[in-house]
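Reopening this ticket.

The earlier resolution said the output was attached, but the attachment link was broken on my side. Pasting everything inline this time so it's all in one place.
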Amino acid sequence: MLFIFIVHAMIQLNLVVSLPTASDWNIFNQSLEGRLLRSVPFALPCFSLTDGVKSNHNAPSCMRVINSYLDDEVRTAHAGSYINTQWETCQSKISGCLLDSEQPDNPAAFSNPRVCNQGSIPEHTLPVESASDVVASFNFARDFNIPLVVKNTGHDYKGRSSGNGALSLWMHHLQGIDFEPNFTPAGCPHGDTFPGITFGSGVSFLSLINFAEQHNLTVPTAGDGTVAGGGGYLQGGGHSVLSNAFGLAVDRVVCKSLLFGCNTRLVNSNHPQLQFEVVTPLGQHLFANSCQFQDLFFALRGGGGGTFGVVLGVTTLALPQMEIHVVQANIKADQGSRLVEFMVDHTLEFAQSGWGGFTLPSGLTFVNAILTSAQAKASIASMQKFVTQEIYGNVTFSTEPTYKAYYQKFTTNVPRGTPLTTSSRLVPADIFNSNNQREELTKILNGMIAIGLEPIIFAAPPFLYGDRGGTSVTPSWRTSLLHVTLTDGWNFNTSKSDITTVYRKLSAAMDPLRKLTPGSGAYQNEADVFEPNYEHSFWGENYNRLRSIKQKYDPDHILDCWQCIGWKGRNDPRYECYPLE
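Inline output:
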């Protein structure tokens, strides 16, 4: 009787009652023609001691791992690898399989008595090739009540695409790209055509940049070219250096007609802007746009990845090729606080002129694609004078013929192959209308620098672009001028208590900015792992509608991820490897 009660309670809590056996996995694999992978830690070949993972110690393979440990292109092509490696580990238990991110060939990380564990890496991975793969995986996960996660390139600050014991759907092999000058979204009138780039959800921004260059187009991207254009980046909103003038990734429009001579109907209407090819947990293979499955289309444009379905491909409106004006400043380390103060005081002015980019305590990089070269130079004259004459830094200005030319010259590598976590906040535009609030914002940002953190101050919100409707990101994006992020990390041998301290330090450092901006929000893809009031912070007034859409398309709640729409909460066993608050 007690056993029956326990089983019933487990079912009510949606816990695993009967895990799939080896035979069950084999049958599932056979149905997929043997394509199911046993995913292992990236650094496994360097370890001779293992626990829970089959030993694969091999000196030549280990050397290849060491040489590519910090290479994001290699990492994104490995099923068991993540860019920020804490999500390869079980942080609550300090078990995993990491090398020294500061010196990958340091034998202290992998020699005895160091042990390689599976950590939080899913043991089974399916490289998705078709909608039928996804349907079969949903059915298997439902039948055995096991977690299912969606992994793309492994750029994941919040661990939403990992989880030991889960079945991982790996989108890496969906690599097709096509351009249709007269694309008509499914179910829409044939007269409504748009220049559209259609690509598989595994296609990287590097591939999209090259494709766009070949076709005289522009695709704004994340700062790291190995991020996939159709994955969590897009589904969570997606900002870029061009977001101020051309919107977030979920906004993508053709162009501003007054600049490029485009049809104003495309710019100012609610006609389709994107299309998603998606498979829902109910097994539906759909094309969602603003003519059909409009609710799902809304949810996928900002509701977050790995939540409403598995996106196989995306069609985004193509921007024409354009010149990119770039201003870059480099300053001495002791002048960072003065640069921050100047940029806060001039944030509104630069945003109104169409500039986007980011400021660091060591300098800045800003771009503009809507002014002429002469206009662009004139609009940043005050900044150039301040940097060169008052804080004795260097300023360069250039006009690059295409977005690719800009990207190749001015983007820098983001940390990879290392544990790294973030916290963020959107800063509303009305802050900049008050001298007192600007002073307080400057004080807060420089306070972060003073305690050893380096804020990245993104001029990324779509200020000039505005709000054209139809997206589910927090409305705070539409009323903000800055997106402020903090990052901090650790290494392979950091203790559990010290890891906890890192998370707490970041969150505490962001608290004064949260206090200054009540009612604002944060960018879900770069937010604090323990973001307070995350429902409002990530989605604002859209949250309840998104909950209803989640229930409609995933009534069995097969998809679940940390602080996602309809999140089951910390007590779900799938989150046992998350760090302590």
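Reporter confirms the inline version is readable. The domain at 324-401 is CATH 3.30.70.100 (Alpha-Beta Plaits). The mean pLDDT is 92.
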